């Protein structure tokens, strides 16, 4: 989202964001890249969906967009409901990042009916939607990132109070069941002394993760929500993600663009991005395998350098922002032309 807003401005796009908050929103606001409209996060509480639709409607009235890009099914349902309450109804394009396996059938059914077009962030996610019954395979547009400007490793570690000679791994992810911080912490028990695990992110499992981290043999720092991921990456030797499922997480792309090898689970979009090098893939829910892969990279600086070069190469070849922007521009143009044609037919 941040990359689209930033580079969209260069193309003459004016963006508004309907958001429940978070570090990505802070980045946009801090750079004065977009007007942000607050939308309640929980749509499952009594009245939550109504409040979310009302807030989204207010954003539509204020911003009057030509098209709305909604991320995932819940935001799509909220947005489509809101568009039906305004005089000038913009088309809706869904960007689908994936769900747990049990939720694909419902997602496929809703994405076949609600949006004007659907985009999947990886081929694996698109394939799962089709297998679950989606009428038409969504367009695949992979997330993209720019090469970050990082402080030096020593400066970053001083700023974070980390020893210069420590082995450091970073996981930046929401503290939710999908991300399997429990598996990561079980794996970290096997890494050994002299290593530090940084956990950046917030979520409903914050207290549980904090308590579990306190019992791990190695040093774990639970940092909470952070908007300075480049600083954290500069301090880290390795990035890690132990998720049960993923579409194509931006954190992994950011880490690879920064030249940080990634240890991640062998699922969906992670398999796509790391299959060509840049780290290690391990079976999901396997702390022993995850621990071994972390030790392998943390203990071998020469191997890290090799995987670092591979990671940067993968990003440069396959996840360039301009390619992503051209693809989204094509999708948005198509839905706008289709809406215009439909309007012409209805008025004739």
From TrEMBL:
Keywords from the UniProt entry: Glycosyltransferase, Transferase
One of the record's GO molecular function terms: glycosyltransferase activity
Top-rank lineage group of the source organism: Bacteria
Keyword Transferase in annotation: yes
Domain Glycosyltransferase subfamily 4-like N-terminal span(s) in chain numbering: 2-147
Protein's UniProt keywords contain Glycosyltransferase: yes
InterPro entries: Glyco_trans_4-like_N
PANTHER family membership: GLYCOSYLTRANSFERASE (PTHR12526)
Protein name: Glycosyltransferase involved in cell wall biosynthesis
Organism: Kineococcus rhizosphaerae
Organism classification: Bacteria, Bacillati, Actinomycetota, Actinomycetes, Kineosporiales
């Amino acid at each position: 989202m941040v990359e689209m807003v930033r580079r969209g401005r260069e193309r003459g796009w004016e963006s508004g964001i309907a958001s429940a908050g978070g570090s990505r929103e802070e980045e946009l606001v801090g750079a004065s890249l977009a007007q942000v409209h607050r939308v309640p996060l929980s749509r499952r509480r009594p009245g939550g969906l109504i409040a979310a639709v009302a807030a989204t409607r207010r954003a539509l009235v204020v911003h009057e967009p030509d098209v709305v890009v909604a991320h995932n099914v819940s935001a799509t349902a909220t947005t489509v409901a809101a568009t039906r309450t305004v005089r000038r109804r913009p088309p809706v394009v869904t960007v689908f990042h994936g769900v747990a396996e049990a939720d694909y059938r419902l997602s496929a059914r809703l994405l076949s009916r609600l949006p004007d077009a659907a985009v999947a962030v990886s081929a694996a996610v698109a394939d799962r939607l089709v297998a679950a019954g989606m009428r038409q395979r969504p367009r695949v547009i992979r997330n993209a990132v720019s090469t970050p400007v990082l402080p030096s490793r020593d400066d970053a570690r001083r700023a974070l109070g980390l020893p210069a000679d420590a082995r450091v791994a970073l996981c930046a992810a929401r503290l939710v069941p999908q991300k399997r911080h429990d598996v990561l912490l079980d794996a970290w028990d096997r890494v050994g002394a002299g290593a530090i695990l940084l956990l950046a992110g917030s979520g409903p499992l914050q207290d549980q993760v904090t308590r579990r981290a306190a019992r791990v043999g190695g040093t774990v720092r639970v940092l909470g929500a952070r908007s300075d991921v480049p600083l954290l990456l500069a301090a880290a030797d390795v990035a890690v993600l132990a998720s049960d499922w993923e579409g194509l997480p931006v954190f992994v792309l950011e880490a690879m663009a920064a030249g940080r090898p990634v240890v991640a689970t062998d699922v969906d979009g992670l398999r796509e991005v790391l299959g060509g090098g840049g780290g290690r893939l391990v079976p999901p829910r396997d702390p022993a395998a995850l621990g071994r892969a972390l030790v392998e990279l943390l203990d071998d600086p020469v191997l890290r350098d090799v995987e670092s070069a591979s990671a940067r190469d993968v990003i440069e070849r396959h996840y360039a922002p301009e390619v992503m922007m051209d693809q989204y521009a094509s999708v948005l143009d198509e839905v706008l032309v289709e809406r215009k044609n439909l309007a012409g037919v209805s008025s004739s």
